[in-house]
Write a structure and sequence with these properties.
CATH superfamily of the largest domain: Helix-hairpin-Helix base-excision DNA repair enzymes (C-terminal)
Strand order of the largest sheet: 1-2
Largest sheet: 2 strands, antiparallel
Order of helices and strands: HHHEEHHHHHHHHHHH
Bound molecules: iron/sulfur cluster
Mean pLDDT: 90
Strand content: under 5%
Distance between the termini: 8 Å
CATH topology of the largest domain: Endonuclease Iii, domain 2
Shape: globular
Helix content: 55-70%
CATH class of the largest domain: Mainly Alpha
Amino acid sequence: MKRLAFIFYFLPVFALSASHEYCTDMFGLPTTGQLTDFEEIFAHLYEHYGPQGWWPVTREGSETPQYIKSNYERRSREEQLEIIIGAILTQNTSWKNAEIALMNLNTKNLMNLDVLAAISETNLGEIIRASGYYNQKAKKIQTIVAFLKKESLAKLEKLTIPELRTKLLTVKGIGNETADSIILYAFNGLAFVIDSYTKRIFARIGLSNESIAYTDLQKQFETNIPENVALYNEYHALIVSLAKEHCKKEPSCSLCPIKHSCKTGECIVIIK
Ligand code: SF4
């Protein structure tokens, strides 16, 4: 009976390992040899949730941002602007609230640098009220808009990632997470996005600790997974899905797709 319990405990791990192969090419993961712990966790999450379609952007004929799966193409200027504004709107609030604010901007045809620069801060605040902290966010949006009008998206795109990051961090209201979200999702640049979900999950897994500095955890990811924009794009989005579904403040480990790789998870299946 003990032997049977051993088989059932490890079976899901073996099954997942075999099926990782289909996603290795697209994300630059090694096809032979062992995956790093960080790669293994990505493979399990991708296996379970599939492509996430980040960052959602509004397509022609629509006013709502859409998730387009497995699209890692260069963004149009309109999409870049919407992602940058969205990255500010989603600070300290859910995407659902940020999305309402984006829809209001789209409905009023305000998603344009000149228009956003011309509107009064008070009016802008009212339009994006749903995103919370709307007065602060209106100020931040107008600050980044002034920055983009001066620097231009075309010029920023030609910078190296460290140069772009340094420039973005000079803009008031843009911190590490927002800067990296903009680099990764608006400019398709290699910057792994860390957020509080990432810190919480990887501390629980046992690969990090919750008080780790932003750039230290980012470095851990960037040294343990291939330099691949599609991989960075999906991995951050998958971490957010896991945090929302299972790894909440109170984790629900029993159905978690990475419980077999997590120190905190309830990994043992007891067969009596
Ligand atoms: S097993 Fe539990 S603690 Fe670990 S990642 Fe999953 S939900 Fe979080």
